[in-house]
Amino acid sequence: MRIILLGGPGSGKGTQAKMLVEKLGIPQISTGDIFRAALKEGTPMGLKAKTYMDKGELVPDDVVIGVVQERLSKPDLDKGYMLDGFPRTLGQAKALDKMLESQGKSINHAVLVDVPDEELVKRLSGRRTCRNSACGAMFHVMFNPPKADGVCDICGSELYQRDDDNEKTIRERLAVYNNQTAPLIQYYADKDLLRKVQGVGPIEEIFGRIEKAIL
Ligand code: AMP
To answer: How far is the CA of 58 from the centre of ligand 1 (A)?
Structure first.
């Protein structure tokens, strides 16, 4: 199954993607994670991406599409995959259609995790992420605090605040989402692929809504 996860920054699509990975046994492909990993390694692509990420802007389409093209050519995707954070522009969506067409494949579902803007700002400004990228667990200082301050409940690594999870950058990311990514909702609705689920409430409940929409 090939699934696209759509939703604003902080909508919880990354968390839901990880739960779907467990359930469906298909890999999660997160372009944000790919950029953060490249930056950690100090590659030119990672350093270039950082200049956009720090401002809350989108990395240019040609860079993102190249990264996804390379990832989609890997041999571990026979059973399908979940795209988390891609596509984010109409240009990327059309490029993805072309890539899939050339492989004789198509998308099964585009799941929109729907959360109001003000809720997104509250969530992102308190978000804390596990530094261990193999774990990647997320917490919230108020809504889902870790047992010990600054320490991941799951693997014991340090928790940190992402550079782009500050109020100014969050507002910019939201504006970018509403201007450039939200048009994809109509794009996938027109193709009869859109599955809209309410992204507010307990994580397990949201997951149940997604399962109902796609299984
Ligand atoms: P995320 O982890 O998905 O919130 O992405 C963090 C940042 O990485 C975004 O704010 C963008 O700067 C960049 N990014 C991730 N995916 C994309 C994409 N598909 N297109 C453009 N920029 C992206």
So the answer is: 6
Mutate to test the pocket of ligand 1, among 31, 55, 63, 133 (most ligand atoms within 8 A of CB): 31
Do 18 and 28 touch, CB atoms closer than 8 A? yes
Average pLDDT score over residue span 60-87? 95
Q: pLDDT digit string (tens) for 79-102?
A: 999 999 999 999 999 999 999 999
Q: Using the predicted structure, report yes or no on whether residue 143 has a pLDDT greater than 90.
A: no
How many CB atoms neighbour CB 210 within 10 A? 24
Ligand 1 pocket: which of 11, 13, 58 to mutate (most atoms <8 Å of CB)?
58
Vertex 119: Cα angle to 117 and 124 (nearest 5): 95
pTM for the predicted model, two decimal places:
0.90
Sorted by where each starts, the structural domains of the chain and their CATH numbers stand as 2-116+172-214 (3.40.50.300)
Residue 52 CA, closest ligand 1 atom number = 12
Q: Which of the four pLDDT bands, split at 50, 70 and 90, describes residue 167? A: confident
Q: How far is CA 116 from CA 42, 45, 92, 185, 198, in A?
A: 35, 33, 24, 15, 10
Helix (H, G, I), strand (E, B) or coil at 127: strand
Residues 101-142: pLDDT tens digits? 999 999 999 999 999 999 999 999 999 999 998 898 999 999
Q: List b or e across 135-155, with b for residues whose CB sees 16 or more CB atoms inside 10 angstroms.
A: bbbbbbeeebebeeeeebeee
CA dist 92 and 78 (Å) reads 22
